[in-house]
Amino acid sequence: MSNLSTRLGKFPLVALVALAACGGAAEFRPPIRADATPAVASLASPASPGAALLRAGDLGGARAAFEAELGGDPDRLAPLNDLAVSYYLEGHLDAARRLLDEVVASGRPLEQQAALLNLGELYAVEGHGEAARAYLESARGVDASRPEPVYALALLASARGEADQALGLLREAVRLDDGSGRAALVFAFGEEQLHLEALSAALAGDRALADARWRELAAGRFPALAAVAARQLAGR
């Protein structure tokens, strides 16, 4: 907390409270709600040491790395976005939201874009699909050349049963992506990755792989995604 206190001296008290509340070891994971339509989260610095630790499952180490980055550069809020993602992965949604709000308020455009995408993800996992889509559209509007929000919008559209729109959005995301877009994505749930793999296989015309992923998703923990998968399989 000492590293972060200096860096966040100019931040609202609410952000500091969020950080203090979540400073301990991970005890939670994101909630699984019957009405959730999870899409995907995004890192603002996917090549950072903290990002590598986060992907390896070392959330405590990732937090320390993000805090060190925040202490080293007072004007760069990408680590604050990524710190919020680590809290989200632990299930601390309110704390993550407070930090993401700060990035939206004070960050640079691409930092704001990542934070808006992640706010959309939080609303999606809480079952607020319309709010999620609004945030994802706002994220897309920050920089229409970036694919990350378009991937998230594709997954959300698919979860809502809008299959044609989902494939169109995924096609656009792939067109925009030079590889850095997929590299920035973070899957809080295995079902999110299965969903993207199923849609990607369908877009590529690989029916066997798509069906395999849809079957796995149909057996997953999220009723909305399982229902989408069942419809896809029934249409074969």
Question: How is this structure best described in words?
Answer:
The protein is an all-alpha fold and 236 residues long. The protein has a domain at 2-19 and 41-140: Tetratricopeptide repeat domain (Serine Threonine Protein Phosphatase 5, Tetratricopeptide repeat). It has 14 helices and 2 strands. It has helices spanning 2-7, 13-21, 49-55, 59-72, 78-90, 93-106, 109-125, 129-142, 148-159, 163-176, 180-184, 190-204, 207-218, 223-234, and strands spanning 41-42, 185-186. Strands 1-2 form a two-stranded antiparallel sheet. Helix 10 crosses helix 12. The longest helix has 17 residues, at 109-125. The protein starts with a helix and ends with a helix. 50% of the residues are buried. The model is unreliable at 1-7, 9-17 and 19-27 (pLDDT under 50).
The CATH class of the domain at 2-19 and 41-140, by name, is Mainly Alpha
Helix proportion = 55-70%
Strand order of the largest sheet: 1-2
Q: Whole-Å distance between the termini?
A: 54 Å
Order of helices and strands: HHEHHHHHHHHHEHHH
Major sheet attributes: 2 strands, antiparallel
Structural class: mainly alpha
Estimate what percentage of residues fall within beta strands: under 5%
Question: Any key phrases for this structure?
Answer:
two-stranded antiparallel sheet, Serine Threonine Protein Phosphatase 5, Tetratricopeptide repeat, disordered N terminus, 236 residues, mainly alpha, 14 helices
